Amino acid sequence: MEMTMRWFGPGFDPVTLDKIRQVPAVTGVITTLYGVPPGEEWKKEDLLALKKEVEDNGLRIAGIESVNIHDSIKTASPERDKYIEKYINTLKVVSQAGINLVCYNFMAVFDWTRSDLAKPRPDGANVMAYQQKFIDEINPDTMFDVISAKSQGHVLPGWEPERMAKVKELFELYKNIDDKTLFANLEYFLKAIMPTCEKYGILMAIHPDDPAWPVFGLPRIVKNKEDLQRLVKTVDNPHNGVTLCTGSLGSSPSNDIPDIIRSLKGRIHFAHVRNVKHNGPGDFEESAHLSSDGSLDMYAIMKSLYDIGFDGPLRPDHGRCIWGETSMPGYGLYDRAIGLSYLSGIWEALQKGGK
Ligand code: DNO
Fold it and tell me: What is the Å distance from ligand 1's center to 112 Cα?
């Protein structure tokens, strides 16, 4: 396992590489060419410049999160093959930069969804939270305004203004896409890129849907063990793998995450490890990483990863906003560093034979 942190790159992330380097155990960052719209081919020189900046700061790029998928691929529009070709060219650039891990998602319209980006907790911290009741009452067209009003001026991953300016159009695009069609489109995409992934040694790691159930009536195909098993079996190639995101899968109390981990042995290429606190049906908040602060058993999760021999990059995920830090919601340095140290401690105990 390699301990990493997400970093959004120069001009986007207020957390700097020199600070990340000081977090004990971190050797790599997970990053992307943030700002390149989905569908646009990556330029090798841009990625090499980013890589140099990371390496000049004593770290390495351990993986890309994300190379986003153009909507024509998700919706099987007539242009999809053209966009798959572009995606393949980007994968080649990624491999030329010596990077072999690509995280992506296949969610319709919205990437992760929250109803609150700064829910106050009794100790003065604030956290991102989700209440189905709020989502049911909101007009999806206004979702972006709700999210951006609380983003402290930062561009949130998956909620880029250019994309959100087209929310109505996007809903129109997906209006005839159900779960079955979306899955068939994912299968088509994966089968088309697998030869390139094999040739260049790229591990694809799909991110689960967040939250792990349908929102705004949109299709959802990566929300539980059954979906994940279907995905890895339908395209049964080790390069077709998963980002095991405990917070996304863990939003649903019916997901048994240690069991999901064990069922995906050999196919988990990347892990996002964080806790969530279930407050009631369809209602959760992103607690501190510690088991005692949320509803997930973080020891059992880390133990399952350890037991299946997980050896990819792992990163702490959304942290609480604490100590007055101003950051992208969920991506401040302080609480992610605390979470990371806790996860490192569990890992050390597992390595030393703790039961
Ligand atoms: C949110 C992230 C997601 C994730 C994408 C992967 O914080 O977990 O935006 O990066 O879904 O493509």
Answer: 6
